[in-house]
Amino acid sequence: MNEQIPLRAESLADNPTADERRDDNTREVLSDVAYKRLAIVNVVYFGKANAGDGAWVLIDAGVAGTAGVIRRAAEERFGENSRPAAIILTHGHFDHVGALETLAAEWDVPIYAHELELPYVNGSASYPPPDPSVGGGMMARLSSMYPRGPYDVSKWLQVLPADGSVPHMPGWRWIHVPGHTPGQIALWREGDRVLIAADAFITTRQESAYAVATEKPEMHGPPMYYTQDWEGSGASVQKLAALEPELVVTGHGAAMQGPEMRQALHHLAQNFEQIAVPEDGRYVRDPAKAGTSDAYRPA
User: Fold this and answer.
1) What are phi and psi of 163, to 5 degrees?
2) Model confidence over 232-266: pLDDT tens digits?
3) Which of 28, 62, 105, 218 fits as disulfide partner to 34, beta carbons 3.0 to 4.6 Å?
């Protein structure tokens, strides 16, 4: 098996002002991109500091019980009582939608998702169960206990525009990166080559509780225990590596920047089956493919 290329923490920034940590531990990586770690996952804030009400976007919504933390970090960054113009959902796993309904109800703003992800967030389908047999770490072993829906935010739910544009995020486009889930998306800004990668690839070993706690920076494929189509996942990583991003913010792990990050990403893309795919497992044997009926399995 090929090994992951370890990433030094300082590989984040050639610019010493990148990854500036605010008082509330929100990490600002660009003047209009910041992220906050919530237990095991990141949420991303798009918009300049002090942008005010309706002038920013929240990307994903963390784990259950974090609505207050997400809201307070938003107010710290954008201003008191400021609401986003929208919430963009990269995918609907429990650690990305935990506070979604609470925040959507409070803010009364649209939630945008890919059409293939809609069944999981409109109340009509649960995700396929995780596979605790793969990955080897504590996070993997506990995965059978993780919520898998169905979730229902249909009151606020809208489909992402078919032309690839991202509402309220000028200069960005969404990219379909299935595999981890059928309708997972990444967000890409060509102008400065910034990539919000969701869980298509991540920069920590998410299966390990120790790695999650320490955030040791490594380039990894999607969390093994909750990935349902490995062929699709490999194709998605290849698609994103081909963009040659300068800065990546992933769903799990620290943001990374520069040539060292790109080298590790290309290594992962070129050796995805050896590095990322379990030797055996439920979805290695029987993948749930995006766009097919077996991707929508009842609870």
Assistant:
1) -80, 0
2) 999 999 999 999 999 999 999 999 999 999 999 99
3) 28
Q: Alpha helices, DSSP H only, in 98-216?
A: 100-107, 118-121, 138-141, 209-214
CATH topology of domain 9-295: Metallo-beta-lactamase; Chain A (3.60.15)
CA 4 to CA 2: how far, in whole Å? 7
Q: Between the CA atoms of 113, 166, 146 and 235, what dihedral angle is there, to the nearest 10 degrees?
A: 100
Distance of CA 17 to the CA centre of its chain: 24
Q: Token pair of 138, please?
A: 């504590």
| Cα 293 from Cα 277, distance rounded (Å) | 23
Under a CB-based contact definition with an 8 Å cutoff, are residues 149 and 92 in contact? yes
Q: How far is CA 145 from CA 14, 68, 72, 225, 277, in A?
A: 41, 24, 29, 12, 22
Q: Supply the pTM of this predicted model.
A: 0.89
Question: In the beta sheet, which residues pair with residue 122?
Answer: 152
Backbone torsions φ then ψ of 274, nearest 5 degrees: -75, -35
Written in H, E and C, the secondary structure of 78-112 is: HCCCCCCCEEECCCCCHHHHCCHHHHHHHHCCCEE
Residues for the chain: how many in total? 299
